[in-house]
Amino acid sequence: MVNFQGSQEQTEQQNTPPVGPVPLETTDPTSVGGFELLGRIGTGRQAVVYLGRNNRGESAAVKVLRAERRDDRRSLEAFEREVEALGLAPDSLSPRLYSAGWDGEHRYTAAEYLTGPSLEELMQADGPLGGAELRQFAVSISQLVVRLHRLRIHHGDIKPRHVITGPGGRLFLIDFGVAAIGDSALRRRDLFSLASVILYAAGGRFPYEGTPLEISTRTMGGRPDVGVLPKPWRDTLRKCLEPNRRFCPSAAGVLRTVGRYGSWA
Ligand SMILES: Nc1ncnc2c1ncn2[C@@H]1O[C@H](COP(=O)(O)OP(=O)(O)O)[C@@H](O)[C@H]1O
Ligand SMILES: [Mg+2]
């Protein structure tokens, strides 16, 4: 069980998948930014992320831009956005940034290694959350977004793979490659994603699933499927998921709603 409320106690992990590095591939660099690379801990569209260790024995998640993206302006901008946002966000919300730059041909960032699991891994191992665990998760992720938005940091890419547990079982957000400061469209997107990850945690599904036709019909009609949520949450979260932005609550509004539990459907 993962303790989303962040006590300092060591969390007990049941059925959680083996998290941790897998061996390097032959084409991988072996050292970047003063870190010896010991294994791969993740991959994304832009980058491969490695477990690194420096000569003082300190570990880091070393994110290296993929070779085929080195000349891609948008990918380079994503690294810049991430460096800026990680510099602004407190270390309790996002991994602490140790260093960033170029090492020869490699564009990289070195940041705190969060051992996980991510929300995606947690769901794959244990299935949906319910009861107090769901509420704890919803409160924690909403608090995270409230605190980011108070700083006018808009993440723009909140999804189960980017919601990850760190020290003491606390929740963190990773991958700030889309993030921007004071961007109202991204702010709106964060609310959509906040409701989506809560829905995913509760039922393992996203609000608009089905065939492409079903998805577009539901989306255009603003009829997200929120039936899996506790009843008292449905109205507020539905408003985050509807196309009409006028009715979308703030992250603080979502937090108020999920902080109140009420009865189950
Ligand atoms: N600080 C970190 N600690 C642990 N794992 C990480 C960290 N940063 C990234 N990862 C892992 O690497 C994957 C890819 O990183 P991400 O930043 O999302 O790259 P991309 O920008 O290419 O999508 C993540 O989904 C996660 O599994
Ligand atoms: Mg990513």
Could you please describe the fold and organization of this structure?
With 265 residues, this protein is of the alpha+beta class. The chain folds into two domains: 31-112, Phosphorylase Kinase, domain 1 (2-Layer Sandwich); 119-260, Orthogonal Bundle (Transferase(Phosphotransferase), domain 1), CATH 1.10.510. It is built from seven helices and ten strands. The strands form three sheets. Strands 1-2-3-4-6-5 form a six-stranded antiparallel beta sheet, covered by helices on one side. It has a two-stranded antiparallel ribbon with strand order 7-10. Helix 3 (131-150) packs antiparallel against helix 4 and helix 6 (231-241) runs antiparallel to helix 7. It is globular, with a radius of gyration of 19 Å. It starts with 30 loop residues before the first strand and ends in a 6-residue tail after the last helix. The model is unreliable at 6-13 (pLDDT under 50). Bound molecules: adenosine-5'-diphosphate (ADP) and magnesium ion. Adenosine-5'-diphosphate binds at residues 41-47, 49, 61, 63, 95, 111-114, 161-162, 174-175, 177.
Q: Tell me the CATH architecture of the largest domain.
A: Orthogonal Bundle
**What oligomeric arrangement do these chains adopt?**
single chain
Tell me the CATH topology of the largest domain.
Answer: Transferase(Phosphotransferase), domain 1
Percent in strands: 15-25%
Helix content: 25-40%
- Number of individual domains: 2
CATH class of the largest domain: Mainly Alpha
CATH superfamily annotation of the largest domain: Transferase(Phosphotransferase) domain 1
Distance between the termini: 24 Å
The count of helical stretches stands at: 7
SSE order, one letter for each helix or strand: EEEEHEEHHEEEEHHHH
Q: Hetero groups bound?
A: adenosine-5'-diphosphate, magnesium ion
Cα-atom radius of gyration: 19 Å
Q: What about the largest sheet? A: 6 strands, antiparallel
Mean pLDDT: 91
The overall strand count is: 10
Low-pLDDT runs: 6-13
Shape: globular
Structural class: alpha+beta
